[in-house]
Amino acid sequence: MGTSGNFSAVVSRQPFRLAITASAVHKGQLRAGDVLQCDERGATIGRTAGKPSAETLLHIEIARRRGAGAVLHTHSVWTTVLSDLHAAGGGFAIEGYEMLKGLHGVRSHDHREWIPILANDQDMPRLARRVGETLDRFPEAHAFVLCRHGLYTWGDTLADAERHIEILEFLFETIGRTQASGSRLEASGHAADRSL
Amino acid sequence: MGTSGNFSAVVSRQPFRLAITASAVHKGQLRAGDVLQCDERGATIGRTAGKPSAETLLHIEIARRRGAGAVLHTHSVWTTVLSDLHAAGGGFAIEGYEMLKGLHGVRSHDHREWIPILANDQDMPRLARRVGETLDRFPEAHAFVLCRHGLYTWGDTLADAERHIEILEFLFETIGRTQASGSRLEASGHAADRSL
Amino acid sequence: MGTSGNFSAVVSRQPFRLAITASAVHKGQLRAGDVLQCDERGATIGRTAGKPSAETLLHIEIARRRGAGAVLHTHSVWTTVLSDLHAAGGGFAIEGYEMLKGLHGVRSHDHREWIPILANDQDMPRLARRVGETLDRFPEAHAFVLCRHGLYTWGDTLADAERHIEILEFLFETIGRTQASGSRLEASGHAADRSL
Amino acid sequence: MGTSGNFSAVVSRQPFRLAITASAVHKGQLRAGDVLQCDERGATIGRTAGKPSAETLLHIEIARRRGAGAVLHTHSVWTTVLSDLHAAGGGFAIEGYEMLKGLHGVRSHDHREWIPILANDQDMPRLARRVGETLDRFPEAHAFVLCRHGLYTWGDTLADAERHIEILEFLFETIGRTQASGSRLEASGHAADRSL
After folding, report:
1. Which of the residues A93, C158, D49, D115 has an alpha carbon 20 to 30 A from that of D26?
2. In this structure, how many other beta carbons lie within 10 angstroms of the beta carbon of residue D30?
3. CB atoms within 10 A of CB A40
4. Which of A96, A166, A190 lies nearest to residue B148, judging by beta carbons?
5. Structural element, H or E, at residue C77
6. Contact present, B148 and A97 (Cβ < 8 Å)
């Protein structure tokens, strides 16, 4: 939607080169000139008209710690709603859904995915450090959320990362709507029992 | 959405031949080579590049017990939300809706459709057996739901099965939203009275 | 959506001739042969392949009592949800919304529109009589709802009737979502005060 | 949606000339002849077929007090729902969201945007005066809402104003859905804690 979100792909590991969408560009109208290259410090390579995304340091942190080939960051209403509702817990769990099987390495619905939530921050170096700490603390996580901001996920390829976005957006909406409906049924005695 | 869901159609009854979508193919980008043929044991017929859908045994179970010409399996947010909210009851009822008249053999809104909910399972032969037991136990059912997974329905033709998907998705969303709103009106004294 | 809903337009008043969509036709794929002509008793004029909509008698009742030039009947999730939540009251009121100004003859948001809700019925002559009684009882009404079925509205032209559908669907969704959110704010002390 | 909403752009400041969409025109089907020019009193310039939008005086008030280059007015379900839920408070606050950074002059998510809500009114000169008082009272506001009517926002250019519409509609939906879900979690002890 509009200028929100940013996308990157690793084009080279030695030396480290990341292709990332320029800042303030409408993501639905990207042209070749709107994608810039950066090194591992976020400095632009080559002669360019625009600035790289303000969140370049976060993409670099994820690409290097997870060995990701592509990193995608999106804003959505349900991501934002859930980040707010679960901020106090530092994250929320998604488990038992068949749709989890599309996440890299997940073979069964009987899987518990913890989605860490970090407080938002305009200080990018500081936020990048906290992102790194979060990735180390949750080595199995496929994604994390910045509170009242958006979702970050990654994959070996752009297609893998895109599939993660699809799956997580679906699950966030499902959980959001279930929570909106479920407590009322619980209050009236219709508790959902997972042991069928 | 993406690689979720799977579709099949019976191309021959003697011998039994089922055409089914291949595993891990994006259902919005199906090409002829993405549809495989199986026999009644789920074994692929002919030389093919892909594997049949992991849920082939479920399609076979439905096609044979119900004499269906086509079987459709879809994932949707509302299906998943309702499957969760009503899992404890083993299913949920939909009655009194004009839209039920689009289901095969239903001539009036004054009809009660019971939607069985089965626990999900990665063991396909075991799940296929439970699907068979469910179909026998509820001979009038037009569909069933796998908890936190999705909807299965069928029909004489692909068009019939597709109409069932449309109708059931509409009704699931209607029921989901009614439940989300209704209990609050009940709590405040505005109980819905069906006897107009 | 699919085969649900039906549309009609009066092509002649003396003799009374109504053009109406045929039964069981996908409304998103209408062709010229899918529109039939009926007289004031619902009998088809001319040689046709299909049957007129099952609800032809309702269209005739509305066209004649209101002098409408076109009658539109649609199914939507929000119409169905609200019909259910308010069935006990025999209808529900919509007032104070700027969007009401698009209804024929309404010049201000300071208008109270009562939407009558009738129980559904498969006996069309009987339902048509009750529709007639409802239209007589509420001469100012621009629309009515069949419970767990759908919305009927009309206008001098198809464009007028279509504008009514747009406006009412918008208002039904707005009211549905407000009711879903509002009672919680009321419970916590944030009552909405209309006297600004 | 349909004939609702209206858009304007300042084409000249001395003399003041505002280009504004004509009244009762379908905004999805605008042609050149549907845009009229007015002076600072709302009187049409030149020979035209239609009348300017009924809300022209509001656009003039905003364009002159804020020095805006374009003014956009839209109706949406979430705007209408929130206007109703928060009417008693005279407005509502949006704070802490990254998406606020797209509003003119806002550099951080750590920003509190107050959205004033005015009662609707068919008396345009009177409403224009109240709009002027509101703009003076809240000099930092980027937008305001007319209760049960819609959203007004503006910008230096049409693109800026359009970006504001996108951002505010996103935030209204996010807040609406959070409020619909949040109170239940609060009631059950899962209070959202902003200090992560």
Report:
1. D115
2. 13
3. 14
4. A96
5. helix C77-85
6. yes
